[in-house]
Amino acid sequence: MEIDKAVRESDDIRLKTKYNNAIYVIQRALALYSVEEVAFSFNGGKDSTVLLHLLRAGYYMHKAGTNLSTRDPVNDETTFPIRTIYFESSSAFPEINSFTYDTAFVYKLQMDIIRLDFKSGLEALLKDKPIRAIFLGVRIGDPTAVGQEQFSPSSPGWPPFMRVNPILDWSYRDVWAFLLTCKVQYCSLYDQGYTSIGSIHDTVPNALLCHTKTDNSEEKYKPAYLLPDGRLERAGRVKKLTSQPLNAVSNGVNHEESHWKSMSTASVIAVGDEILSGTVEDRVGSVLCRKLHSIGWVVSHVSITRNDIDAVADEVDRQKSTNDMVFIYGGVGPLPSDVTVAGIAKAFGVRMAPDEEFEEYLRHLIGERCTGDRNEMAQLPEGITELMHHDKLRVPLIKCQNVIILTATNAAELEKEWDCLIELMKSNELLVMTEPFVSKRLATTLSDVEAAQPLSDIAIKFPDVYTGAYRESRGGSIVITFTGKDEARIRAAAEALCKKFHPGAFSEVD
Ligand SMILES: Cc1cc2nc3c(=O)[nH]c(=O)nc-3n(C[C@H](O)[C@H](O)[C@H](O)COP(=O)(O)O)c2cc1C
Ligand SMILES: Nc1ncnc2c1ncn2[C@@H]1O[C@H](COP(=O)(O)OP(=O)(O)OP(=O)(O)O)[C@@H](O)[C@H]1O
Ligand SMILES: [Mg+2]
């Protein structure tokens, strides 16, 4: 068989392994279910195109294995009796539609076209046909792959069938290695910069493949197989799939009660038993708070957590749902106490899965000693992780939905990571910079009893200005802080306070 021959003759060992595993899964399925009981869910996408060829090869081998002596020369490899289902939709790309139909014709697929949503369509199909298992081109990293194995029963609430995912462990790179090695046709959109295809409403070419802009500003895209980092395969999917939206707010002159609530908020979590025991000082937290403040973010919460998966999971779970962004550091690495990433996975209810791109970075960094299977560090939370690469970083930053993992251990390292992070977040439109905070500080030797009531009055009169106070020592002066996004309002609040006391009662602190 052509496909089998092409893979076996190639010197891509990795592809051979992936291919053999996928064929094994297909053969297991064909041993468990009769041909009438299986179906193939085909939609013309690259993953289902890979699966089509694997299924044809697997089916042929299965037939040859079970029925060698009686092989019918007419019923050869060009015949593929597995029922193929396509959920046709008016919002599919015309190129996807025509590729699906053309492919069905070329390979004589027995197509069932379903014009209902997935769930209702499957309900109707399963009522009518004896289908018990459906082959899908789902891969780890797809949002729908979370929690799935190669054989996964359909979810509760769905009609009962077995989802069979022979290419679950294939990476983006494996998919292209296969399609190119086997020289099979794929949908033309992949040559126009599309890297993962949903509907016409949520899919654009992947900006990471955009290479020129001509005078009339027409954009040109490289083919999908040139995307260097498969993790970014879904970058052409319109936002809802990447992460929770960040409501970066830029109005600093809204004088309403809800003013502070409308700002972007961040929570900072340090992980470290040694910080809790007082053995070491946290050298990152305060610098990070200053950085966030400088871009106009409100830091709502700072905490220190034990090196314990459940403790990290609980804290991340609490903070991720009440903040736009969570920054976590400490406990990242291969040591037994490095449980931060696993804690994050637990907080999101996903498992840890090997991440090939990350493994590649680690291999460059640590050398060949760490192979994928043994390298615990190459395991990342499945389906929610995005690697953020920057030329100045040796290892990409890890982002799990709205949780960013920092590896900095001191202020200098944080400076560097922060600069890269800001650049990356801006270019990915994950972070719209908000107006920075401005603040004014006034020191006074007035007693706190004297200052208390006038300060409350100012806070009521200027709800858009944060009015706070702190002491440097119990007996020393009080420092009053005014913070907000509108300099004029801050000045007005400070002046209003000064007017309530004798001249010279306050002096400005730099
Ligand atoms: C054959 C088939 C079986 C599916 N089985 C399930 C399932 O068991 N559970 C589930 O949540 N979604 C199932 N889905 C839906 C997919 O996960 C779907 O891609 C996902 O809900 C996202 O769809 P959307 O991006 O088009 O909205 C199935 C889809 C197909 C085509
Ligand atoms: N409209 C559909 N009809 C039939 N099967 C579908 C449909 N949409 C998705 N599927 C099934 O779900 C799998 C996963 O879909 P997904 O969009 O992730 O992959 P793909 O379309 O094959 O490739 P790409 O990631 O490039 O879009 C498909 O391989 C296919 O088996
Ligand atoms: Mg698709």
From TrEMBL:
<keyword id="KW-0067">ATP-binding</keyword>
<protein>
    <recommendedName>
        <fullName>FAD synthase</fullName>
        <ecNumber>2.7.7.2</ecNumber>
    </recommendedName>
</protein>
<keyword id="KW-0285">Flavoprotein</keyword>
<dbReference type="InterPro" id="IPR014729">
    <property type="entry name" value="Rossmann-like_a/b/a_fold"/>
</dbReference>
<dbReference type="InterPro" id="IPR001453">
    <property type="entry name" value="MoaB/Mog_dom"/>
</dbReference>
<dbReference type="GO" id="GO:0003919">
    <property type="term" value="F:FMN adenylyltransferase activity"/>
</dbReference>
<dbReference type="InterPro" id="IPR002500">
    <property type="entry name" value="PAPS_reduct_dom"/>
</dbReference>
<dbReference type="InterPro" id="IPR036425">
    <property type="entry name" value="MoaB/Mog-like_dom_sf"/>
</dbReference>
<keyword id="KW-0547">Nucleotide-binding</keyword>
<comment type="pathway">
    <text>Cofactor biosynthesis; FAD biosynthesis; FAD from FMN: step 1/1.</text>
</comment>
<dbReference type="GO" id="GO:0005524">
    <property type="term" value="F:ATP binding"/>
</dbReference>
<keyword id="KW-0808">Transferase</keyword>
<keyword id="KW-0548">Nucleotidyltransferase</keyword>
<keyword id="KW-0288">FMN</keyword>
<dbReference type="GO" id="GO:0006747">
    <property type="term" value="P:FAD biosynthetic process"/>
</dbReference>
<dbReference type="Pfam" id="PF00994">
    <property type="entry name" value="MoCF_biosynth"/>
</dbReference>
<feature type="domain" description="MoaB/Mog">
    <location>
        <begin position="267"/>
        <end position="400"/>
    </location>
</feature>
<dbReference type="Pfam" id="PF01507">
    <property type="entry name" value="PAPS_reduct"/>
</dbReference>
<keyword id="KW-0274">FAD</keyword>
